[in-house]
Amino acid sequence: MVLGNYKEAVSARATDKKIMEVAQDGGIVSALLIHAIESGVIEGAVVAQDPADDWAPVPTVATTADEILAAAGTKYSMSPTVFGIKEAVRQFGLEKIGVVATPCQTQGIRKVQAYPFSTRFIGDKIKLVLGIYCMENFPMASLDTFSEAMMDTDLKDVDKMDIGKGKFMIQTGGEEKGIGLKKTHGYEQAGCNICTDYVCEFSDLSTGSVGSPDGWSTVLTRTGAGVDLFKSAVDAGLIETKPMDEVKPGLPLLKKLAKGKKEKNAAEREKRVKMGIPIPTLY
User: d(Cα 170, Cα 153) in Å, to the nearest integer?
Assistant: First the structure.
């Protein structure tokens, strides 16, 4: 299965206007984290925030709705989120932790939980992993190049970044600019080219914009924890949903992109192995 194992696929968005004002797409991650904290499923979450407003993401432990909202929105450079889990346990003393992670980070988290010998008393405190779809990620120097050299905009003036409809886009002062994704190839982090997971297959629930209309997100519930939290949020009126077969472009596009990443990056993995370059195991 190109999308991994999942229980249900729906198109969804948060109903809270405050969330939607700062959300990347449907605000699913923010809505679920806030609900998880307020309902006691977790005590706090490790999220990526840019406290200096320069788009350099920093792992941050959020324990309130306001702190979750302060970290809303996608950052297209890698945040060392896994390091924040240790801080949540050791410095904050949290016993039930949520994490927002990319596919590669999620694989690392699951390995920590499966082989906890070097991370004592940490893995068992991770109660919720929310995954975000990810094709590739960029070093900060690449984002500088996209914004400043290619779109003549100071990175510090950018209000929002997004990838969609074949473009890397930025918004600043109500103005939107974009460059074709073909121009971004070669700027991604090298490790992204050997990752074959687009939809965060090992998360409890994964989400992203692909497959859903503007302002909505496609949600894949994967585990009991993901199903229970999502259903609870929907029942509480915090999230509204639509069946995937009623929205466009729907799951076919998501499957196409996921399959494309698997095939392209599997070929790159084989190429590096033949060259004698060490690569990490996937699972």
Answer: 9
